[in-house]
Amino acid sequence: MKRLLFIFCCLLLLCDTHAQSGRKTLSFNADWRYHIGDVSDASATEIDDREWKQVVLPQAWNEDEAFAKAIHDLSANIVWYRKKFRIPKGITSDKVFLEFEGIRFGGEFYLNGKFIGRHENGVMAAGFDLSDLIDRDRENILAIRIDNSWSYREKATNSTYQWNDKNFNANYGGIPKNVLIHFASKIYQTLPLYSNLKTTGVYVYAKNINIPKKTLDLFVSSEVKNETNKSSLVNFVAEVHNAEGKLVKTFSKKFNLSANQTQQLTMNSALNQVNFWSWGYGYLYTVTTKILQDNKTIDAVQTKTGFRKTAFKNGMVYLNDQVLMMKGYAQRTSNEWPAVGLSVAPWLSDFSNGLMVKSNANLVRWMHVTPWKQDVESCDRMGLMQMLPAGDAEKDTQGRRWEQRTELMRDAIIYYRNSPSVLFYECGNESISEEHMAEMKAIRDQYDPAGGRAIGSREMLDSKLAEYGGEMLYINKSARHPMIATEYMRDEALRKYWDELSYPFHKDGEGPLYKGVDASDYNRNQDSYVVETVHRWWEYWKMRPGTGDRVNSGGVNIIFSDSNTHFRGKENYRRSGEVDAMRIPKDAYFAHQVMWDGWIDPDPKGLHLVGHWNYAPGTKKDVLVVSAADRVELSVNGKIQGEAEKRYNFLYRFPAVDFETGVLTAKSFTKDGKLLNKKELRTAGEPYKIRLTAQHGNNGLFADGNDMVLAEVEVLDKNGVRCPLASNTIDFNLDGPMDWRGGIAQGPDNYILAKSLPVEAGINRVLLRTQYDKSGRVLLKATANGLLSDSVAWTVQPIKKTENYFVKESTENLPSFLERGPSPEKPTLVQLKKSLKIRAATAGANSEKAAQSYDDNELSDWVNDGQLGTAWITYILQEKSDIDEIDLKLNNFRSRSYPLQIFVDNKLVFDGNTDITLGYCTLSFPRTRGEKVTIKLKNAPFTAKENKQVEMGGKKLDDGVARNDANAKGTLSIIEADIHQVLVN
Prior knowledge:
With 985 residues, the chain is mainly beta. It folds into 5 domains: 24-186, Sandwich (Jelly Rolls); 202-305, Sandwich (Immunoglobulin-like), CATH 2.60.40.10; 494-549 and 558-675, Immunoglobulins (Immunoglobulin-like, Sandwich), CATH 2.60.40.10; 687-799, Immunoglobulins (Immunoglobulin-like, Sandwich), CATH 2.60.40; 833-982, Jelly Rolls, CATH 2.60.120.260. Strands 48, 49, 50, 51, 53, 54, 55 and 57 form an 8-stranded antiparallel beta sheet that branches. The chain has a 6-stranded antiparallel beta sheet with strand order 3-2-5-10-7-8, with no helix packed on it.
């Protein structure tokens, strides 16, 4: 009886909403069945599918393999899906649409045995209009044949897809994203689904943004179809609600809709007292666009969006009028979890993406393919800017495969153009031709002309059309469009490997070769990983905005979380993450918190004490501290240790500190001795007890078959201190209406789906997933031999359901992250250096090409003729100036060192060898006034470090311009030279 009453209430809710708006959207995720393997006539209505496996979406059919298998071993097959459904009682809408947020890879769709279309790009959303095909009085059967073959070919052209790649695009097959059903009247606003439907939906944008006055002109444009046989006079209304739900603006305009026509309805109004979206400030508005006929709402669409002002100029990114150095992660688009893949609960997307923001990242660059809707909307809430690709692999392409890329970019722009977090559209993971750049730019200009988003590609160093560029593993500078490193650190490290002196005693770099060369960088321990993390960011930071006219605009570290994608180390998955696959932080995560806590320069209070303090008696340990302060002090049980070696601006190394049971303390200070921060590490006792905690979304936990609980287990001593060397095996027992998905650890099959698994470094996590339409109390227990056990309980809430439709409440009322607050009002850019303009240059050889060494084009260089006597170049400044330093990008910068002399007006000011860098070395000398600067090669350059790192295909990493100077004895090659006067030390 209670269940019937509940269903009746749901029906009332459906009918009431329909009566008010003429539109209803429900989840279409429930009651699917699937069969692995091709089946003859599986699209037929009469086929018996009772023995097929039941599933609630989103869920990949091969999800059990996530992290158990290497990416290239993930299963591929033909899988048939079927769903039986009726039109819900009380809904009389004329139009019925299905929205698939994405399938993997190519699908053929059938309704009641009739073929209704294909969707083949394996990435983006697609829509289907069922209005004239559906049986409104009987049961309907939707059948889909999905092929997730790695070599899937487009049916019409026999072309493969460039992004269906075994290196980066984890193959979670079938329907791993949500499916929605939309009911609307014959006069309706279209959906932003270009594939199949060829419609563009609602576009909300702002012009004349004034940040200080908090004003803007708000434009609302909606594609509206009138599928009736008569014209109709309608009132187009926009209602704007702020994040608190308060109605702050209403405006409207009348339009005459012609019969059987599609029209673009556009209107605008001023909006005042605007809260602007910003980094770490995911302030969102809800814009409801309504179509009213005779004062009755016949259609209404809600668009979540935010407003911000952007500019991309002078080599820098501007957000809300302030310069922002980009910093963050190049994250695999799958953003996956063990035994789940990408199909996580909505709150878990916020949890993961929010961790990026809490590490002080401001940008995520999704890699190679467009992310799914859930991650894009999550970044909106978290205040995390996005670099959004369409789809590609590692290079430009031609013919049909290029057309596929442009079509995917079009679909992605239409689908995501209302998301304030999208700041960049990425056209390729490698440079593309200017002709192709023009095509992509035209697509952006057609579908998102006012969104304030830059379009570009990796590299594009000499492009006149791209609005941003950047490289993979080296540094660029520019005075034109911003240069943002798209992935700058590949090193890998397991979270459990602290150092060489404590369990499990991982010698840094120990592991197999990769493609026949040393792979130490891919088998680091945590101490070494932190050092590399700081070192690499420092190289970008020292070329930051404010260091002259030509600057670097930041970069993203590959990757954020350990990933079931291409790997180079010992394990069968990528361990480049700053957090592991369960999002447990590594020490490098906290290093980023310190270095990235600011728009350009970090907050000096940032401090992190690396590692743990649990060693054998007599151990001498190099202690690392990451700090943005001027001075750091270290003590053991109150005894001050010696002076630190400061490296890379942020890293303090205290050598050979004697271990002593107790407390290790780091304090940071200003130059004048003011205490800024304090961090401690305490020696833990023997493992004594388990602590088990659990979390789910702040909006509740729902029986929708996809909501999740993340449970954390720790091993503690008697005083409640986590035991950082503990590796106890934990046995879990689950009682209640949830499914076990488990966690990950090093061992057989990576312990995927195991109900007993070890903690690593004293901690681990597991996932549990709700069952469809099964609510109630859940109890999770954790036990281990010799330890006190623990348990935790929670309750799964019922869903609002009628037949096999439901309201997916787990997607509703998710809170935004607002902790960083609005954009700063005071200028973030401090001009630290002045670029001294070069009027002309002469050289010992090839003088006609001397200007290529300062032309703001990093694909060109000046080089002499290989003779030591001609290995010099002289720059003539526009005016006599005080000169302090020179930034040089020299060919073979990754491997070659050059013995150089620098003269200012014939006075020797520098004599030494250049450092190996990711691009630019800075040569500093006492301030000298002059007009001519000569750079001279003193002796033959030499290999300071062999360039051993290789790409996936075996190609060595880029090391300068496309010319091998490695064996030249008298060659000086300068790609770019910047001469500076230092303004602020």
